[in-house]
Design brief:
Elements lengths: L25 E5 L15 H14 L3 E4 L27 H13 L3 E6 L9 H9 L11 E2 L22 E5 L5 E6 L14 H15 L5 E4 L37 H19 L4 E4 L6 H5 L9 E4 L1 H4 L4 H14 L8 E3 L8 H6 L5 H17 L3 E5 L20 H6 L45 H6 L4 H14 L9 E2 L6 E6 L3 E6 L5 E2 L8 E2 L7 E2 L4 E5 L6
Parallel strand pairs: 1-2, 1-11, 2-3, 3-7, 7-8, 8-9, 9-10, 10-11
Antiparallel strand pairs: 4-6, 5-6, 12-13, 13-14, 14-18, 15-17, 16-18
Helix pairs in contact: 1-2, 4-5, 10-13
């Protein structure tokens, strides 16, 4: 059974003193388009995020990360940035952003923003200048322009493939109307990759960092943080087809180049400069897709990124051995750098946890139970954690969006629904029994992606009213994480457990166990748990369940 904690406006302050704040923070990812719409146009916006801050404080997170809100033609919903120092009118303006920062800080919440340094929008001023300037120009050297192969230059400069499908090169038409050079884009043609070997690129992004730090942000989530630099000779890939089979770092010629670490050292120095002014830590957290935890650890050395998302737990199949292997690898290689592991189970690019763990139609109940158990395990692990919006509601993936409403460039580049991301980005349900479910300020507003009728049972108002809901599990876990000194930063110790069960101790007074199997097993600790992901009789741990027990008589 779930423990009953006193209702209050928000989680209590931490009962332990520690610094820096980010080492064991829980950050909530806000996908702005789909969080809350204040204008009635069916698209979420910054004013909607500001209106939702009390909800997030009540949930008990330490801060929020905003997806891109910059001016953009929206070919990849903001990850194609046309101006890094402004707000797209669909989301608000700079004044609204500053109100959002101020309100977040009044509520004790940190605020991180997304920054996209690997590529620009094709509508960015720099790229338009490059197209106009022609071959060999300084304007083109800020990107990867190259002549084509073959006698008439009609073949791409190399055989790389884009991760969103198709070739990684597009040929331009020069000012005189003739076919010209090709430019590199590892995602879509509307997202030309920047050439980080040109010093003007790095100088520009340091100005961007300062622009937003001067407006009070607490840090940055860095998109494609293992990208930026490419092999200087742009040679052919040994396995070009692999480049578009996965969004991971399969092309070692385009990812994880050694020069990228100097960028993060410079960015870290900028953050440390601001910290020296007022004592407040600014955070850099990277989206680092690299082959293993050992490579991952190189990005979080003391003078580079503070954190980098550890995706191996997200990618682990449901099972005790796979989860333990991922956790052990992270703690061995990443925590050894002096950083803390940054755990994630979901984000805006992944199938929602409930659906991913279900494994197929007809097993949705098992998926929900497993997602609850995985959340409780994640919150028990040493380090920081990030929670994607809607996970606290137990939202499943929307799998049956009609083809004509799909917006993901993966679908439009490949014609396939495999790996598309629209299903986890459908606007959140807040209240009511019909779309827009309180998401939009206008009744009957058409949301930018359609919400299914069954969203009604996952609406926030119902979740808050039901003490057995995902929302209450997350909130109670976050409250205990704040109040129990064993949780957050620190170490863990594995305990002996039956097959298909993981049991770990945090400090001397807390035990967490997860039963990955189907059969009930004896609990590792007698008595009722402090918190459980589902019904958990004294002395038992049912299949698909996680629980926390206190072995400290002074615990709440």
């Amino acid at each position: 059974m779930l423990s009953t904690l006193p209702a209050q406006a928000g989680c209590p302050p931490r009962t332990r003193t520690h610094t820096p704040w980010w080492r064991d923070a829980v950050i909530y990812q806000v996908y702005v388009r789909s969080f809350l719409d204040s204008t009635g146009d069916g698209v979420g916006d910054l004013a909607g995020v500001r209106a939702g801050l009390p909800y997030l404080r009540k949930l008990g997170v330490d801060g929020i990360w905003l997806s891109p809100f910059y001016p953009s033609p929206q070919h990849d919903h903001g990850y194609d940035v046309a101006d890094y120092r402004d707000v797209d009118p669909v989301y608000g303006d700079l004044a609204e952003f500053e109100r959002l920062v101020a309100q977040a800080h009044r509520l004790g919440l940190k605020l991180l923003i997304d920054i996209v340094p690997n590529h620009y929008s094709s509508e960015h001023r720099w790229f338009r200048e490059a197209l106009a300037a022609g071959p060999g120009s300084r304007a083109r050297s800020r990107f990867h322009f190259a002549p084509g192969r073959g006698p008439d230059g009609a073949e791409p400069p190399n055989n790389w493939r884009a991760m969103f499908g198709g070739p990684a090169w597009t040929r331009v038409t020069e000012a005189d109307g003739t076919p010209g050079e090709w430019y590199l884009h590892l995602f879509t043609p509307e997202q030309p990759d920047l050439n980080w070997r040109d010093p003007r690129v790095g100088e520009q992004f340091e100005k961007v960092l300062r622009f937003w730090l001067d407006r009070g942000v607490d840090g940055f989530r860095i998109d494609v943080a293992a990208g930026l630099f490419k092999h200087p000779e742009l040679p052919d890939s040994d396995d070009p087809a692999a480049d578009e089979r996965t969004r991971d770092s399969v092309n070692p010629l385009a990812w994880n180049q050694p020069e990228v670490h100097d960028v993060w050292r410079r960015w870290r120095a900028v953050c440390e400069e601001y910290t020296a002014r007022d004592g407040a830590e600014r955070l850099l957290v990277g989206e680092v897709s690299v082959p293993n935890a050992r490579e991952h650890a190189l990005y979080v050395r003391p003078d580079e990124l503070h954190q980098a998302f550890f995706f191996d737990l997200l990618g682990a199949p449901w099972g005790a051995d796979a989860f333990r292997a991922a956790i052990d690898e992270a703690l061995r290689d990443i925590a050894g750098t002096g950083s803390t592991v940054t755990w994630v189970l979901n984000n805006h690019d992944q199938v929602r946890t409930v659906t991913r763990y279900a494994g197929g139609p007809g097993t949705e109940h098992a998926g929900a139970a497993r997602a609850r158990a995985a959340a409780l395990l994640m919150l028990a692990l040493p380090g920081a954690a990030y929670v994607y919006q809607g996970e606290e509601l137990g939202l499943p993936e929307v799998l049956d969006l009609p083809d004509d409403v799909l917006t993901d460039p993966i679908y439009h580049r490949t014609g396939s629904r495999a790996r598309i991301r629209d299903g986890c980005r459908v606007p959140l349900p807040w209240s009511g029994h019909a779309s827009p479910f309180g998401f939009s300020g206008a009744a009957g507003a058409r949301t930018w992606l359609p919400q299914p009728e069954w969203f009604a049972e996952y609406a926030t108002d119902r979740a808050l009213a039901d003490t057995r809901s995902f929302w209450h599990l997350y909130r109670e876990g976050l409250q205990l994480r704040r109040s129990l000194p064993q949780l957050g930063e620190g170490t863990l110790r594995w305990l002996d457990a039956p097959p298909q069960v993981l049991a770990l101790a945090r400090g001397d007074g807390l035990v967490c166990a997860v039963n990955f199997g189907d059969a009930t097993v004896p609990a590792p600790v007698p008595g009722a748990p402090l918190l459980a992901s589902g019904p958990c009789p004294d002395g038992e741990l049912p299949g698909g369940t996680a629980a926390w027990w206190s072995t400290d008589t002074s615990a709440p």
